[in-house]
Design goal:
The chain has 586 residues and is of the alpha+beta class. Strands 15, 16, 17, 18, 19, 20, 21 and 22 form an 8-stranded antiparallel beta sheet that branches. A 7-stranded antiparallel beta sheet has the order 2-7-8-9-14-11-12, with no helix packed on it. A 5-stranded mixed beta sheet has the order 1-5-6-10-13, with helices on one face. Helix 3 packs antiparallel against helix 4, helix 9 packs across helix 11 and helix 13 runs antiparallel to helix 14. The protein binds zinc ion. Zinc ion binds next to helix 13 and helix 15.
Length: 586
């Protein structure tokens, strides 16, 4: 049951490499595992009666329990599909069947509130998320009720959705218009997943309705979106996943070109150093607006939803092209976007906006409980399992350097690879190979775009394989039980200007990690004297490999430090962008 339905007879665009599809990958103790564990505790304990209460109330059924708050005050339509999707994926990734049982009970409980005429109490925005949840329940949890309900829900949508399909612009940033279908261009992706999973043409035909040809057309010519206007950032980034699935469905190389150019457009003109994008939830014209955004707003990037769109686009492109470079964005977001987010709290308080203000930012929860980002946060925790490794006949691909274990079937035997590392706090990762008999295959390791002087050794012996940043390094040999491969990625300090118009407005990174300055100890942001360079201005602490002391010429009452953005707790002020050559205003 491949995630992207590669083996589907209905797919025309083929994958070069495949995901593990939430199967065979286990997280070992580390930051990712801790985040996932916390999410499992929180999301598995939301009472079903609370999730169903609003739907039951509206349909006149008994409705015990407490309402959820915020976006879910009337009912949970805005997140129901995301909750189901996360439970289906997480259940498969962790083997926790209680999540599948909970999802099935929720699905059946919700379906009892649907009247006989199939009228859903959902907007298209909510319905699109429901489709994702139903496809996932079918694919990953084997929930028998999922497909009949999906067919019923799609028939209702096909009868009732407004098909105006307004093009987004400065004044209507998600193409909603009066009464029309908001964010309609995100609809094809999951309908196409349903088509590939079932061969039922109703999904393909309804998906075709919502293709965003007007918006994508400039990308097909490789001209990027030269006319960028401040449209809604997350949903437009998410539209590119619809383009990617259009490639999977049609095999039309034009959709693949659109998806690749969209990735490059986002990297070159929209993303901050954290991998987040969308100040005030908008794309920025590439005229210095992104740099100026750091003087404005407090919400620079919608982190969970933005990461969700980024994970999917990157994963589609890695699969379709087999190229390593698309994994770089995933890594950036794993440490600096979703990996630096606050966890969702049991009462629904959710981290939403990354705050990168020049005047200092901080992490805090969104003003409403249970927003969109509470749904994508849960889905992302499951998706951590599906971005670390990829596979192809005769090759295992290592995209992320995370404590984890993967079991892969090769040549009739089960190969287990255990990855041990404290990366990015160490610059090495070691892969231990466990298998019954000797077997020849390739281990392929992503060399990040920032990496210089990377090296690979096997059982202590340095390997003379080509190592190029942004590509896979391949060790193809006969592996034996107990073999160990070590990848070393030496890290250096570097600066990342926010855009071309602001060459001195920079974030500072060490390897893949964005460093932030603790603002609470001292109200003076880091700056560089005109002749200084980073390595002389920042000194690595001996007892903490990712904490750097700012070398001060003037005596300071307190020492000043830069440390990973992901280490900052809620409400602790920091700087992530600095005007390096400007004297501070105060
Ligand atoms: Zn969101």
């Amino acid at each position: 049951m491949p995630d992207l339905n590669w083996s589907s007879p209905y797919a025309r665009g083929k994958a070069v490499i495949e995901t593990f599809d939430y199967d065979g990958v286990t997280l070992l103790p580390g930051r990712m595992q801790a985040q996932v564990q916390r999410a499992r505790e929180v999301y598995s304990s939301i009472p079903n009666d609370s999730i169903l209460k609003g739907f039951r109330r509206a349909s006149g059924l008994p409705h015990p329990g407490e309402d959820l708050r915020g976006w879910s005050k009337i009912n949970t339509a805005k997140v129901l599909g995301q909750l189901l999707s996360g439970m289906a994926r997480m259940g498969r990734a962790t083997g926790d069947r209680s999540l599948w049982d909970k999802a099935e009970a929720l699905l059946l409980g919700w379906h009892e509130t649907v009247p006989p005429d199939g009228q859903l109490r959902m907007r298209p925005y909510d319905w699109e998320k429901l489709v994702c949840g139903l496809v996932d329940l079918h694919l990953y949890a084997g929930t028998a009720a999922a497909l009949p309900i999906l067919a019923q829900a799609t028939d209702w949508a096909a009868r009732t959705f407004d098909r105006t399909r307004r093009h987004s612009d400065n004044f209507d940033f998600w193409g909603a218009g009066p009464g029309a279908t908001q964010e309609w261009y995100t609809l094809p992706e999951n309908l196409y997943r349903a088509w590939l999973a079932t061969g039922d043409r109703r999904y393909k035909e309804f998906g075709d309705v919502w293709l965003y040809e007007d918006y994508w057309r400039p990308l097909a010519g490789g001209s990027e979106l030269s006319h960028v206007v401040p449209v809604h950032a997350y949903s437009h980034a998410n539209s590119f996943s619809s383009a990617a699935m259009a490639y999977a469905v049609t095999g039309d190389a034009r959709y693949l070109e659109i998806s690749i150019n969209a990735y490059d457009f986002l990297q070159r003109t929209q993303c901050y150093a954290t991998g987040g994008y969308g100040p005030d939830e908008r794309f920025m014209p590439p005229d210095g607006s992104l740099g100026r955004s750091l003087e404005l707003y407090a919400g620079h990037a919608e982190i969970p939803c933005g990461t969700w769109a980024g994970f999917k686009l990157s994963r589609y492109l890695m699969a379709f092209t087999g190229e390593a470079r698309f994994g770089d964005w995933i890594e950036t977001m794993v440490y600096n976007a979703i990996g630096a987010a606050l966890p969702t709290e049991p009462d629904g308080r959710t981290y939403y906006y990354g705050d990168y203000r020049l005047s200092s930012g901080l992490k805090q929860h969104y003003w409403h409980e249970w927003p969109c980002c509470s749904g994508t946060y849960w889905q992302l925790m499951a998706d951590y399992h599906n971005v670390i490794y990829f596979k192809a006949p005769g090759a295992l691909y290592v995209n992320l350097f995370v404590p984890s274990e993967v079991t892969w079937s090769h040549d009739g035997q089960s190969v287990r690879v255990r990855q041990e590392t404290t990366y990015p706090e160490a610059d090495t990762t070691t892969l231990h190979v466990e298998l019954e008999g000797p077997a020849r295959f390739a281990l392929r390791l992503r060399i990040p775009g920032w990496a210089r002087r990377a090296s690979v050794s096997v059982n202590g012996a340095l390997q003379t394989v080509p190592i190029v940043a942004g590509q896979w390094a391949t060790v193809d040999r006969e592996w034996r039980a107990g073999d160990a491969l070590t990848l070393r990625l030496p890290m250096e300090l570097r600066m990342s200007p926010v855009d071309a118009q602001h060459p001195d407005r920079v974030a500072i990174l060490f390897g893949p990690t964005v460093l932030a300055q603790d603002e609470a100890c001292c109200r003076r942001p880091f700056a560089l004297a005109s002749t200084a360079d980073l390595s002389s201005a920042l000194v690595r602490e001996e007892n903490d490999p990712v904490r750097f002391r700012i070398v001060d010429t003037a005596p300071e009452r307190h020492r000043r430090f830069l440390q990973p953005l992901y280490t900052f707790p809620a409400f602790w002020p920091y700087w992530v962008y600095f005007d390096l050559r400007e004297p501070p205003l105060y």
